[in-house]
Amino acid sequence: MKKLLLASAVSALAAGGAFADEVKIGVLLGFTGPLESITPHMADGAELAIREISESGLFLGGTTVAPVRADSGCIDSALATASAERLINSDGIIGIMGADCSGVTRAVLENVAMSNGVPMVSPSATSPGFTDFDSGGIFYRTAPSDARQGEVLAGIVLERGFDTVAVTHTNNDYGAGLANAFAENYTAMGGTITITVPHEEARGDYSSEVGSLASAGGDALVVLGYVDGGGSMIRTAYELGAFEQFFMPDGMYGDELLATVGEALEGTVGTLPSATGDAAENWARVGEASGINWTSSFVSESYDAAALLLLAAQAGGEATPAAIAANLMNVANAPGEQIHAGDLARGLEILANGGEIDYVGATNVELIGYGEAAGTYREYIVEDGAYVTVTFH
After folding, report:
1. What are the E-state strand segments in the chain?
2. Which of 93, 161, 256, 325 is most buried, most CB within 10 Å of its CB?
């Protein structure tokens, strides 16, 4: 993909000079809320890239980098906004790795990041609403849009012979956007949705929602949510005998789901953004040596998001938000030498010498526009209490 140049001007913050002794990157994720079981692994992925770059000694003349964690709550816009303000105004970060859930990401972007000119790279905000949103060139994501996931999941459901389903989705931007994308594609392909029921996260009892879903009928239940709430929905539906077959998206994937839902999850089929080829092989090598849970949801996307922020600063020659925003698209796409996970020091060296890189990273990164990324999805099935890869789409 031919490099794109930033057309809009982005104001720089005073925080972080051209060659400060240390700069800070915000890691804004849902350490509380419905993704709290997988969030620590995502943070570990981002901090793995930050540490790799900092310890190389090649970032902006030996400048070191420190991550600063902050809580988005996943679905708590007020908390996420306050956390972002603290990161910018108190901690002096030069970029935000995050946020995670789509609703809070939009809130932070509109209420804090855009007005301060601070770039954000989200590893997991997949709402289709970001595709056409004009952020002034400061918002990016390393996971593909749910417009694509909805299409892939709809095809999988029909290919497995389920042409009538009930749907429940978490009641926020992520759930609604994915539900709309799934419904549009599923019905266009010939499927029938008996009912669509939104659900709130962190409720102890989902029997009312399951009752409505069961009354409407359907050969399977499509649960579009997060690990905690969505998992409880599946367990309740199974225990009440309402449904036996379930389908789920990326927000539901996690080892914790296997432990909490148990036998109810057996045979469940889902989708998850996943790389193939050299990128996947390199990430497996780096991940296995890292000591972190590198196979968990959005860990590889978090590694890439953090790496992109810092490689863009290196390309711009200074640790400022403006330098990052102006160079993110350039370092992420061709032309240039391909840089994989674990190869960040070489990328820094090439950029320091005036060369160009094409960051492939852990997920085959390709930014196809401000706020949009290309990507492939892994289809998996739960068998004998484990996630088993079926194929890639």
Report:
1. 22-29, 64-71, 96-98, 120-122, 139-141, 164-170, 192-199, 220-224, 246-248, 269-273, 337-340, 357-361, 367-369, 372-373, 377-383, 386-392
2. 325
